[in-house]
Write a structure and sequence with these properties.
There is one protein chain. By secondary structure, the chain is mainly α. The chain is 44% helix and 0% strand. It is flat, with a radius of gyration of 17 Å.
């Protein structure tokens, strides 16, 4: 058993990451993003990001996430864009891996 994120889960601190278990290059932690249409003004996107960051920092919101086994992390739009690109690249490579078969 292992967690697929880049670091151990605070909810399961004794469970190693895939990397620690010897499976390198597959960091797939769960993530969620808030997306807006491409034409949304930058100042609106920035404000949405700030408001989301404020909300996930609230103690009652963090508590509810913890009850669900989730550790919220707020990112700005640049960081989210990089996350999407990185995960798309990783998952595309895994899907194309000739050693993976569907039974």
């Amino acid at each position: 058993m292992a967690v697929s994120g880049t670091r151990r889960s605070p909810f399961f601190p004794d469970v190693p990451t895939l990397s620690e278990a010897g499976i390198k290059g597959v960091e797939l932690g769960n993530w969620f993003g808030l997306f807006a249409p491409a034409a949304t003004p930058a100042e609106v996107v920035a404000r949405l990001g700030r408001e989301v960051a404020k909300s996930v920092a609230l103690p009652d919101v963090r508590q509810r996430y913890a009850e669900l086994g989730v550790e919220p992390v707020a990112q700005d739009s640049t960081a989210l864009r990089k996350t999407v690109a990185d995960k798309t690249k990783l998952l595309s490579a895994l899907i194309r891996d000739p050693r993976i078969a569907v039974d």
